[in-house]
Every structure is written in structure tokens, then in C-alpha cells.
Write a structure and sequence with these properties.
Elements: H1 2-23, E1 39-40, E2 43-44, H2 46-69, H3 81-101, H4 106-129
Antiparallel strand pairs: 1-2
Length: about 130
């Protein structure tokens, strides 16, 4: 369970860094938001940039929830609300995987789709093992 939690945290951290890159103007907008993002020279614009800003703390929080549920670190008490929150993270990753797989971008479909699928499975392992 601990290995699964660390893998999930690393993957979610990687996605948070991807979102930060989008916010900073790296021209990867065609590989985000289903390939439908408003982009100029590959850089996400407006609401899509705002969504990337919002995604960063959500992804970090989700990683900390998974780590806490696996009793790695002292981020949150692993009892109580964290037990429910880890299932919310799992559901979020399942929905996110489905969205990635529906993307027009091959990178998002295969790369991010695979990444979020692995993270979903890892989160499920933590949720049922804790």
C-alpha cells in the first residue's frame, strides 16, 4: 500500500508540474483539456489558464490525502474524513482518465490517460488497504 501511495503522489505531482508549466506559458496547450483549449502559439489562454491555476492545489491536496491514508507523513489524520476523501480522489481520477482517453491529442489520450489510470488504480489500492 505504501508503494502505491508514493507512486500516486509522484504521478499527481507530475501532473501538477504539467499544469504549472501551462500556467507559465509552456506551449503544451494542445495536449491539455481534450485538445480543445483556447491556445495562442500552443499556450493556454483565459479560462483554461485559470483552470490550470486551480488544478495545482487540488492535485497537491489529492496527493497528500492518498499519502495520509497510507500513513505516510503527518499531513492529515488518516482516520475520519480522509477515508472518504481518498474515495473522492479515486472517483476524480476515474473521471479524469475517461476524459483523457476521449481527447483529440494522442499525447493526452495515451500519455495522460495511462498516467491517470495508474494513479486511479494506486488510489484504489490505498483506499481498500487502509
Amino acid at each position: 500500500m505504501e508503494i502505491a501511495a508514493v507512486v500516486v503522489a509522484v504521478l499527481l505531482g507530475g501532473v501538477a508540474l504539467f499544469q504549472l508549466a501551462l500556467v507559465m506559458g509552456v506551449p503544451w496547450g494542445g495536449h491539455a483539456y481534450g485538445g480543445r483549449a483556447d491556445v495562442v502559439d500552443g499556450r493556454v489562454q483565459g479560462a483554461y489558464r485559470a483552470m490550470s491555476v486551480a488544478a495545482i492545489p487540488i492535485l497537491v491536496f489529492a496527493a497528500l490525502v492518498v499519502l495520509s491514508r497510507a500513513d505516510i507523513g503527518s499531513w492529515f489524520d488518516s482516520d475520519g474524513w480522509v477515508g472518504t476523501a481518498v474515495w473522492v480522489v479515486f472517483a476524480y481520477l476515474v473521471v479524469n482518465t475517461a476524459a483523457n482517453l476521449a481527447s483529440t491529442s494522442k499525447i493526452e489520450r495515451f500519455g495522460m490517460g495511462s498516467l491517470t489510470a495508474v494513479a486511479a488504480v494506486g488510489t484504489l489500492i490505498v483506499a481498500v488497504s487502509a
